[in-house]
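Appendix B. Raw example, untouched.
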Amino acid sequence: MSLLPSRFIYVCLHFLVLYFQLQESQQSSADFRFYIENHTRNPDDLSRKQVRIYQLYSRTTGKHVQILGKKVNANGDDGGKYALLVVETETFGSHIRIKGKESEHYICMNEKGKIVGRPDGRKQECVFVEEFLENNYTALVSAKYKGWYLGFNRKGRPKKGSRTTQRQQEVHFMKRQPKGRQDPLEEFLFTTVTKRTRRARRLKPNSKRN
């Protein structure tokens, strides 16, 4: 009978330890979620940004998005100076700002859903969220006006955000490097030399001769 109290105390202590461990893990996970949400919704200058330069190929026009200043259209030629876009990506999430390298204006969407170019891209109206589609295209939805997409009609003119949906071809884009320029990331895709790659390189000339 004397063993029962000691076993009871041991079980109680064991459950107390598990309880405190569970509380600590929940607190740490909650703090991490708060940190992620805070940096995603309220990015600041202290957040690390990734900056890349590429073109946005429009599925409807067969040309590229270009920023001429206050005017934005999808009639840019491949390699055109106004079609080169500086895309700033926030550290957390897929929130981006798109600036013309030549015009130094940002693509923004106002409260009426109109696409305009502005010299200051710090407002939420100039932030878009990337949505990667199954057909290998990318859609850009406004971070401020939910469900309103960046889109252009067949003539290359901007569509109002309120008249767009993700399924429309007018909002489908593809990231492309300018003509004659290679993506710096692609240069390192096949640089690893192994015994298999050396053997494949030796066999290539022989296979052509046969």
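End of appendix B.
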